[in-house]
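Obj: model holo form, ligand = zinc ion.
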Amino acid sequence: MIMIDKDTVRKKLEEMFDIPFSVQMLNENNEPAFVIGPEDPGKEFFTVRIYIRNQIRLMMDFIPQKYSVNFIHSMGEQAEKGTFVSYWKLMKMRGAKVTIKVNRKEIDPADVDSWPKDWSVFEARITKMPIVEDGLPDYESAVIEWGSLMMGMVLALADIVPIETEPTLKGYSEGEIKRTEVNRYERNPLNRKLCVAANGYDCSICGFDFQKVYGELGNQFIHIHHITPVSKIGPGYMIDPIKDLTPVCPNCHAMLHRTDPPLQPEQLKMILMARTGKMLFSDFTQQYKVAEENIKYDIDTDK
Ligand SMILES: [Zn+2]
Ligand SMILES: [Zn+2]
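Output (holo structure tokens):
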């Protein structure tokens, strides 16, 4: 018996992408299937259909909506396709088969220049089998994980995700435009999601793990830093959020930005290692296990 709560799926997606979602559950031959998508009263966008077959195979299809012609056309016009390609690669790295067709012809993630310029039909099918390598999967987590990867991939080409903007950094009038540019990429919620899906939530420099130290309060908290120097970010540079972004704690992040251009993460790691002989927190264990359940707070997710 596969138990999946559609409201949990919806809430998780809304948390991740910060837009309203709708999630429908279908029952086909006693096997669960979901239709998820951004809330879309005008039927202008898309849904993703997720099926679980024989408890072992997860399949997802992109389903255009009645009036999604303009949406698909605008996906093709999106100049920044790096995030889209990175989601695609990440799903392949995780063992899925990914087939994407534009105007009925399969496209190649390694050769963006060969893709059609004018998109009229978009198709995507992702198959993951087995859903997990050992034992029975947690189906709800699998639907959330894979659904969010597919959603992130499509939304990476859409204009319906709000891009967070960095609050103005006081005292940095010089080079402020460059900073805003970098922060746009660092703070794009899709790039962030993708970076942590690939690299996790530990600081890549000192190893600090907010959840281990602060418990639930620190769950999924981490800064995202852009490694590639600003000078390389121009028209035509394709962001690869897995390689170009890295999770860092606010201390290490501040240290990286002490220099202009910022230090490379490897340089800062060497400084730290030279002084301490190790990544500070990589062997951090249970020292901070306190009675968390006695401490009450509300997490302000905007911070
Ligand atoms: Zn750190
Ligand atoms: Zn940074």
